[in-house]
Amino acid sequence: MAGEVVVDALPYIDQGYDEPGVREAALAMVEEETRRYRPTKNYLEHLPGLNLTAFETEIMRNEFERMQQRLPMDVLSMKRYELPPPPAGKMTDIAAWNECVENSMAQLEHQATRKEIQEINWQRKDMQMQAGEKLKKLESMWVGLVSKNYEIEQACVQLEKELAEDLESE
Prior knowledge:
By secondary structure, the protein is an all-alpha fold. It is built from three helices and no strands.
């Protein structure tokens, strides 16, 4: 089992995926599996044909077209993150100020949401780190118990051997 990488759900804890040969080993496993799997019939024939554009939106179609034409992507607009005051001619207009306040409140809400997401990710990482430490302790205990069992088995074998020798000498 030494040197093998077991995939589980602790991405902050697991290590070794970027080691040389791991990707190749995974691809070899997939290749071996596909060689063994030979479907006897088309198990999807009862389904309708695949519609690749069923969920495309107008924006997606435009973007696909832009990519096919190898045109550059539009520069990301940062306008939504600006907090401009009302225009010079509307400095005394309460509606214009209310619009500015609503814009700032929307931006604050977006920031709070991004903060919540970050906190959830930190909590997830912390939980995984704690689980990783617990797993390491349990694995260490397991190794110790297995070693102790092996030593006991060896001692039993030695005692049985000595007992057999004593019985033969009598």
